[in-house]
Design goal:
This is PhnA-like protein. Keywords: Coiled coil, Membrane, Transmembrane, Transmembrane helix. This protein is 76% helix and 3% strand. The chain is mainly α. Among the domains are: 140 residues, no CATH class; 58 residues, no CATH class. The chain has a two-stranded antiparallel sheet with strand order 1-2. α6 runs antiparallel to α7. It is rod-shaped. The two termini are 37 Å apart.
Length: 308
């Protein structure tokens, strides 16, 4: 023990050597019990809110509240249920701890608040994992059925091919198929001398290049106008006008899609920020409720009467 001497008097500033340390003043059993009670009460109230919300749905009369009203009501009810659950849990923990000190009770209430949120997170994670596992099993069953059906169909097709269909296939000349494919793929000639399949193939090729590269050279644009004019039997000026109109509409559609994508991203960011603020408010309010419940549940030491 360290001492300090002033005008001949000694004052102690520590525990004597060999003295046992201060005993722990926290009851983990009480904290865990309070956390379990808080989660149970909050879950019970949320189930009650779910029942009330389902009762409010009336598809026959057409008087069902809107989605926004349901969302606001569910958020408020969740906040109230969480607050009441932590209030009761803090009270239970402080009462079971047996401590008559207000500071100890507040710390027990905060511990209940932390345990309660951890238990809620674990339960929510298990529910999400179970739902995902069920969905995966269902998708696997569907995929297995589809593959089995495909295998059966392939077997049937093979059996059919061994009949009259195989005899018909033997009568087809492979050289004719190759010549037809080469004729359909041959592009770059006079549009008036090309077949409709050839013109459409080259038009599709040029349009694909326009979409992927973002623009076409003047030579490709002239070629596209000639193909369109020959395919639809219109004047070259009319073909160029139609192409400009289609290109303008495509640019407007792309700009509109970009604008909607930005708006969706902004809405998602705003929604995430609002949800984060609400979660923070719910946790802060839950901590206050747990502390108040613990203060109420603090035991009052019995009064001791002294006789002279």
């Amino acid at each position: 023990m360290s001492t300090s001497t002033t005008t001949g008097a000694a004052y102690g500033t520590g525990l004597p050597d060999g003295t046992a340390p201060l005993p722990s003043r926290i009851s983990w059993g009480a904290v865990f019990a309070g956390g379990v009670v808080a989660v149970a009460v909050g879950t019970m109230l949320n189930v009650l809110g779910l029942a009330i919300g389902a009762t409010a749905v009336d598809t026959t009369a057409g008087q069902t509240p809107g989605a926004s009203s349901f969302g606001i009501g569910a958020g408020i009810w969740l906040l109230v249920a969480n607050t009441i659950g932590l209030l009761v849990g803090g009270y239970v923990a402080a009462r079971l701890s047996g401590s008559g000190d207000s500071t100890d009770s507040v710390l027990h209430g905060l511990s209940v608040w932390a345990i309660g949120f951890l238990l809620s997170a674990v339960l929510l994670g298990n529910i999400i994992a179970g739902t995902a596992n069920t969905a995966f099993q269902g998708a696997s069953s569907i995929a297995g059925g589809v593959l089995q059906g495909v295998g059966s169909a392939a077997g049937g097709a093979a059996n059919a091919a061994s009949g009259p269909a195989s005899q018909l296939a033997q009568q087809v000349d492979p050289k004719q198929l190759v010549e037809r494919a080469q004729t359909a793929l041959r592009t770059g000639g006079d549009p008036a001398q090309m077949s409709s399949d050839q013109r459409n193939a080259e038009i599709a090729q040029l349009l694909t290049r326009r979409v992927t590269d973002g623009q076409l050279s003047q030579q490709d644009r002239d070629r596209l106008g000639q193909l369109v004019a020959a395919e639809y039997n219109i004047a070259p000026d009319e073909a160029q006008r139609r192409l400009q109109q289609v290109e303008q509409q495509a640019n407007q559609a792309a700009q509109e899609a970009s604008r909607r994508a930005r708006e969706a991203a902004d809405a998602a960011a705003t929604g995430g920020a609002v949800a984060a603020y609400w979660i923070f408010a719910a946790m802060l309010l839950g901590a206050v409720a747990a502390v108040l419940g613990a203060r109420v549940g603090t035991r009052t030491p019995p009064a001791v009467r002294r006789y002279a």
